[in-house]
Design goal:
There is one protein chain. The chain is α+β, with helices and mostly antiparallel strands and 290 residues long. The protein is built from seven helices and eleven strands. The chain has a seven-stranded antiparallel beta sheet with strand order 1-9-6-11-4-3-2. Strands 5-10-7-8 form a four-stranded antiparallel beta sheet, with no helix packed on it. The protein is globular and about 50 Å long.
Length: 290
Amino acid sequence: MNQISGRDSFRQAVFCDETLQQFDACYPEQARVLDHAMTSHDLLTLEALARLGTALPKASVEYNPGDLPVGIKPEDVPDNGMTIGDTIRTIDRSASWAVLKNIEQMPEYEALLLSLLAEIRPILEAKTGKMLKPQGFIFVSSPNAVTPYHFDPEHNILLQLRGEKWMTTFPAGDARFAADEIHEGYHVGGHRNLVWQDDFEAEGTRHHLTPGKAIFVPVMAPHHVKNGPEPSISLSITWRSDWSFEEADARAFNGWLRKRGITPEAPGRFPARSKAKALAWRVLRKVGFS
């Protein structure tokens, strides 16, 4: 495995007691802006991130022009014509957006991720059970870059480290903003980008993120992001839970039912559980009937 220099771990507490109380109050279903104390780290400079992007497997790197509309089909996203290293090193003028996925593949970044998650682990495990599949993502964005309207399957806290951005979030599980059929398709290999309608904007909640601010985003909560006038670096720390995996598998099973002419009821949001449908999908998948 490639090694990237940097400190082995982050020792100072990043989330203060007040922030932990706020997280406890919003987790797992309400998006909320939080405070954090990680203003700098030698693994998170532009040069370190350019090296990380080059070292990661190709499948773990995504980058494209940043001047995209909020709603765009995945197949319509163009290439920016640069390498990932050059994209990040020149992010102030490359008019691009980049994400480095699964940074825990590198030991130094894994240590950083786990040290941050350790601070919130008692709170989240008290509500949604054992913390599963910890993953980290780093977003590097040019001025005014746009991350299109999408959702993600993980519980997520995004820490803003440099620059500013505005994230607009929408309620998770509301079929107005992401139809049940889109959820079902996503969990069997569909894309995370969603169908945007301009009248959604008035019903979203706009959150302003600056260095020292973070935001908790619930599982599958639709959102889009607009970067400010300066380059931006954000670190996303994510995890899964038994509940989130059940919800995902129940959605996939509903898609299987829908293909057979049945209109299924959507899984309930937390604390509702979907054990029966999740088990049914896991059995179908195991025997190859999915």
